[in-house]
Fold these 2 entries.
Entry 1:
Amino acid sequence: MGEKLVLSKDDIDRALTRIAHEILERNKGPKDLVLVGMRTRGAPLAERLGAKIKQFENLDIPIGSLDIGLYRDDISEGINPLVQPTHIPVDIERMKVILIDDVIYTGRSIRAAMDALTDLGRPQLIQFGALVDRGHRELPIRADYVGKNVPTARNEQINVRLLEIDGKDEVVLLRLD
Amino acid sequence: MENIEKATIETKINTNKPNMITNTSNHLLDLDDLSTGDIETIFSSTNAMKEILNRDIKKVPALRGKSIVTLFYEPSTRTRASFEQAGKILSADVINITNKSSSVEKGESLYNTVKTIEAMGVDIIIIRHPHSGAPYLIARNVKASVINAGDGSHAHPTQALLDMYTIINHFGSLKGLKIVIVGDILYSRVARSNIIGLTKMGAEVVICGPHTLLPTELLNNHSLLPIITPFNSVRVETNIEHAMADADVVMALRIQLERQSTNHLPSLREYSYRFQINKERLNLAKPNVLVMHPGPMNEGVEISSDVAHGPKSVIEEQVSNGVAIRMAALYWLSSPKRLEA
């Protein structure tokens, strides 16, 4: 039942710094980039990556947030009844959209996010970054940027806690018995 | 033989009283079934639905594969059209049935009509009926979710939700606001649902109208009410000038010419003279007062044209919020997780 620390506050910050550099490297600079965080915890992560890119390149890149509730394929299995607004400050047509989430697991959220995104326009490309990749994919999807790969069992849970939402920064592994 | 058949059918019909209903969570029948948390969830989702309405392509797959029937036994423009629009934007399949164009004309009972619809595998039934309580009868007898789109003079929950949402959009909250509802309170389902919802969310409600169009239990003595209800805290005024003082919101109700209203009034002219929301009376309210009307309006009777289309009117906004609120209600009703919360 105990929690095992996977990433500390400093580990999270270092991982995000690296991901910010990787995004810039792979896309040859910040031109046409849009960071889109998937609610709930992807949104503050996108904000933080945006701040780092601003620090490295001295350029503000547009940051949005996306709610995928209306695009999930499991409505009958019990989705959250609350949908939050999607807000992307620019037209994503021909932009390079980097989707950000806290954890990648089955891949179904990313599938839903890509559907949600393409309803808003036709981006030049979509890439995906996650703070933690815990495996167990159910769809042919992979992350372009990963903070840490954490091998897990199905009966384990990854909890990402972020300062903006949970009051502190840490990633822990929980066993559900 | 016929008699025996009839008897078995009747035993199958569950005729429990509305308050005997055990599983109201599957339905949206009136606002007294919803907690403040439920109402806040629906309002938050409504913001997300409004964003979808502003897109070029107004379509999301949330309710793909669900089928919805609107079953209307009374005329309606905005409620029926906005439910249909809401369902279609969420990718549900929507079938519209009205009493004039269905087997209802041939004498089919409400129970049998609904059972037929259910047999076709419908997920949500949206019903409007002239008899108070009709949606409750259906809710007890079908597996589908039932939404009350107005039953007689009883309830109209989605109208109240969109009215409350419109007010919150302007003031941020309902807490402590003085909301005056003017007109035919006695026969108004909009007034009843609004009173329940507004008081639940912390607003102060004042109702105003001629004696004959106010519920007698409210006119006499609140302590006569058998139980504590939202109506205990409602203030009653028969003088419009007193009611309007310092109002944050004025809601004019339609004088319902098709119901009994007219028999309760000496004339429509007298009603207008004593209760019409006009410019002079509006000046008694707070400077940033909102004017609302659930529609359809009898302009020149319960509300003057210059006020109805004036700068303080949010009547058109009510209509556009109607689609978003109904999308949120349909989505909320379709997500089983709300039952665990």
Entry 2:
Amino acid sequence: MSTHTLSLLEAVREGLAEEMERDPRVVLLGEDIGRLGGVFRATDGLVDRFGVERVIDTPMAENAIAGIAMGLAMRGLRPVAEIQFADFMHAAMDHIVGEAAKLRYRTAGDWTAPMVVRTAYGGGFRGGPYHSQSVEAFYSHVPGLKVMAPSFPDDAKGMLTAAIRDPDPVVFLEHKRTYRAITGPVPDGDHVVADGRLRVARPGDALTIVGWGMMLHEALAAADELAGDGIEAEVLDLRWLLPIDREGLLESLGRTGRLLVVHEDTLTMGLGAELCALAAEAGVLQAPPARVAMPDAGGIPVADAMEDAMLPNRHQVVEAARRLVSSPGNGEVRPGGPGRGSWFDAAIPEASSVIEVRLPEIHLELVMAAVAEACRAVPQSNATFTWEAIRLHDQLSVDLDLGPLSPARGGGTFTLVDYGLGGSLLGLPAVRPGQTAALRVGAVRDGRAYVALAVDHRAVDGADAGRFLATLKRCLEE
Amino acid sequence: MLDLDRAYQVMSTARHMDERMWRLARSGRAHFAVPCSGHEAVGAGYGLALHPGHDYVAPHYRDLAAMLAIGLTPREVFLHFFARRDDPCAHGRQPYAHWGSRAHGVVSLQGPQPNHVTHGVGVAWGSKLLGTDQVTWIGFGDGGAQKGEVHEAMNIAAIHKLPCVFCVENNFYTQSVPSRLESARPEIAARAAGYGIPGEAVDGMDVKAMFDAATRAVERARAGEGPTFLEARCYRYLPNTSNDDDTRYRSRNEVEEARSRDPLLLLRQELDAARADAIDEEAMTVAAEAAEWAEAQPEGDPEEILEHTYALTS
């Protein structure tokens, strides 16, 4: 595939020009986009090529730019509105959030708004509080919108082309520091990136760092530095901020188990919160997730030292990554010591089986003996799981959990839970870290009780659990 | 020329539907009524001045008469009123009087007023760019007229001579707030001068005057001469919506006085009395039949609540 080299800004311009060439319905509107070519020059030269009817200089009226773009889209055109600075887009929010995003839904598809709102966001060039903001969290909270944020020139062109062809409204975020700082190869010819997937900007296995825009490039610089210490970070370029590529994120976290999100937007209710929640809910994290973000300050100051101190940078990413990879992590095997009796590991993939047995009310010694017999029959139920090997224990040491007043003391190799006559008829025990199985005996009623076995499915499979319970039942009832 | 019988039929049907809706909402059989009584001459006047199915309308929410004039049927309107599954305007997703129908050229109306004014300008601009002669009628209230939304939209439409008509339906209240607290200068049409476009105040109770003014404005827009700003002065006889209590902010005397210039009474004076009676009787039957029929139609389906957020799930 032959390519040519462009800055991100040139890639945006090329995408606009080629799409206008291809599709006469595409019109641009915004402030200073005509003769001036846009304050960043994204539309430089386009008015000469396509005329004032298709490259429209509007009055300073962001609300109208967005609302008129929606009307044009409803009428069958493909408008691309430019909001000069993301900071000014708040004035257009009613038409983006309240109108365009809801139009398809509120008319059950009768009316739609295939439009793009492009804007320049982000700090780092001494713009002060009103020329530096990141706005992705506002728009990524809105079903009905798509939010795209390219970090490389090829994506800037390919994703913008996809945005213009998209049947739904798209907010297209261009980090203004990437405009000229980031150059790269762009495929020749028609180039469309419409897959909605994140991109692995750098493969690794120690942790997953997610970013977009300029922060993606800070994350890549941090990853270089971490590699010097032998830490191979996987860096994900999120690209689609809404809808999020959940599958791509979880695929990476399934390998690394550690998540660090980096964004220039402020911390609280930022996109990092959603990504961390998504990972936590999926149960793929081996350590608590981490975020590097702008602090919750009232704005981005203009003074050099103040702005530099405000915006996140590669050094903070390196530091956070080091902390994250050195944190012990839930998934690591820590055989329980004293006081660890109530410690749980949500990452253990558990499976449970239940049988009913004949059992006298006084039965603890009987059950202990039966457990010992069953563990001999199925040795992997008295074991410790590690990713390297399943370590079988020579000795059986049962942790006894007899209720809140007499909990398990920890340090054992197998857990037995029995709350006696006051306990519930049926309860499922939890497998404790460092162990592979736990048994819970329910309250005896009419000489019978339910017995539940929980196992770490990585060490003990269903057939093993069945054999364990069959042995147990035979011992108890003989 | 305005067909007076047709105008009276539209207005009488709207009035009978309106009164029935009010009673249905007040008796708990529907969510929400948005009265049009007192605005019928405005709606019928402009609705009959447009080319149905060709021109576009970004209507005011009190424009039931216009919707009937351009082709929505009473049954369709009542499906919308009852939020039934086959509601053509919003499919059970928006309350009554949030008009919309691509087939009839009715631009979907939203809740926050008057955002559709800007959408209407975009639609008009689209028609101009596509080189058609379609006109977009943009209606809104005197309340909406006070928002910056209208200024931005009207300014841009004037700059580019877009094929649209702005019509403020001035009933002198933003729900409860009277015009003296809306604007220091109550003649809203006077603002047209600030945009360099023609402005005209019209007796919105007189359907002939309304039709004539609308026809002039539509023809001007169709000829590529740009927008006109009409101010149709009218009065709302019922409360703002079925959730409003207008006794808290206006006297019964004031309402009764306005009733003496009821647009239906004014038009009746021009018609043969027997003919007008026959039209009224038919309108009452049509309204009753449509309401009864629509109420019996299936409700919106909860299985469909996740559909139509994005194209893929449509």
